[in-house]
Design a protein that fits this description.
The protein contains 12 helices and 10 strands. The chain is an alpha/beta fold. The protein folds into 2 domains: 18-117 and 223-323, Periplasmic binding protein-like II (D-Maltodextrin-Binding Protein, domain 2, 3-Layer(aba) Sandwich), CATH 3.40.190; 121-215, Periplasmic binding protein-like II (D-Maltodextrin-Binding Protein, domain 2, 3-Layer(aba) Sandwich). The longest helix has 20 residues, at 237-256. It is globular and about 60 Å long. It starts with 35 loop residues before the first strand and ends in a 24-residue tail after the last helix.
């Protein structure tokens, strides 16, 4: 879960053919003569991960899909799933692990598109600590955000590198991951993102070393996903399909012209640090799109299965079936009825 608060808090053109992002030539059809309201709650404050959303708003892709999208920021990172489950918002951005955890608790949330298609969560240290491999964490102090599955990431990475878990001092620093590194309270942290905290540290001249969790033995997963409830999905298939395809166009437009997307993000959120956002958008671009010529938003079921099994094996969920039917590609271009 995105729980970190950035050190420098300052913290979507004509519609492109879907083929530009690997999608089939399905055409968006307005769902109604009058745009329908839809509320979307972000996972945290607006940032580079959401650039295609703001581009789709600015570029008129959502309007062309018959959607009047109202973007909201959450009161806390834990709020989006609970609010969508309660019907307070229509869709939310959350995290693959959080979706599986919620379904393990019998919630009816459903992931219907991947926004960021690979893990962002990383072990990060400043360059002066000279920690470039997981094995070098032996005897070190690592700050965590207090999130159980991220602690399990670290344990998995240590085990994968042959480092006894007991040889690493783990300290819960909450949201203060970057300050804990800069003050020397910890030697490294886990929970920050390679496309944000690492860029901040680099811009501050700290020469960070970054080890994505997926490079250390943790199964890959979708860092950010679009979520709604099974009931809302069933009752609004056409509307949600329009949303997904409009956002696919938004992210494709950003890939074609990153600066245009950055301008849309900054214009809608003038308090953001434009230098940080620009670097973060450009760094994240490849992670917005799946491989294998799949359409934007694609979720690989074998990947969800493997990650869900990892959660089960690490006692993060009680029911392996929590991963089953947690995601669908039905709304994506060329998919579904």
């Amino acid at each position: 879960m995105r729980k970190t608060i950035l050190l420098l808090v300052g913290v979507a053109a004509a519609a492109l053919a879907l083929a530009a992002c690997g999608e089939k030539h399905d055409q968006i059809q307005p769902v109604a003569s009058k745009a329908q309201n839809m509320t979307m709650m972000l996972d945290w404050f607006p940032n580079a991960d959401h650039v295609g959303i703001y581009e789709a708003i600015a570029n008129g892709d959502l309007r062309d899909a018959g959607i009047d999208l109202h973007v909201e920021t959450p009161p806390s990172p834990t709020a989006p799933l609970s609010l969508v489950e309660a019907g307070k918002v229509d869709v939310a951005i959350s995290y693959e692990p959080e979706v599986i955890l919620a379904r393990d608790q019998k919630q009816t949330v459903l992931s219907f598109a991947a926004l960021v298609q690979r893990p962002l969560t990383s072990v990060i240290s400043i360059g002066s600590k000279h920690i470039t491999k997981v094995s070098q964490l032996r005897g070190k102090t690592v700050g965590t955000a207090g999130i159980p599955y991220q602690t399990a990431y670290l344990d998995t990475m240590l085990d994968h590198a042959g480092v006894p878990v007991s040889s690493v001092n783990q300290v819960d620093v909450g949201s203060n991951l970057v300050p804990a590194m800069l003050t020397g309270r910890v030697d490294a942290t886990i929970g920050g993102y390679w496309n944000y905290e690492a860029i901040q540290l680099r811009q501050a001249g700290k020469k960070p070393n970054v080890i994505p969790v997926s490079a250390g033995g943790v199964p890959s997963y979708d860092e950010l996903v679009l979520v709604t409830t099974e009931k809302y999905f069933e009752n609004h298939v056409t509307l949600l399909r329009g949303l997904v395809q409009a956002l696919g166009r938004g992210y494709a437009a950003v890939r074609s012209d990153p600066q245009q997307g950055i301008d849309a993000l900054d214009s809608a959120n003038p308090s953001l640090d434009p230098t940080l956002q620009s670097a973060a958008v450009r760094a994240t671009l490849p992670a917005f799109f799946p491989g294998d010529d799949k359409p934007w938003g694609w979720q690989f079921q074998n990947q969800w299965n493997a990650y869900g099994k990892w959660m089960y094996d690490n006692h993060l969920i009680k029911h392996l079936a929590a991963r089953d039917y947690a995601s669908t590609n039905q709304l994506l271009a060329g998919q579904g009825p």
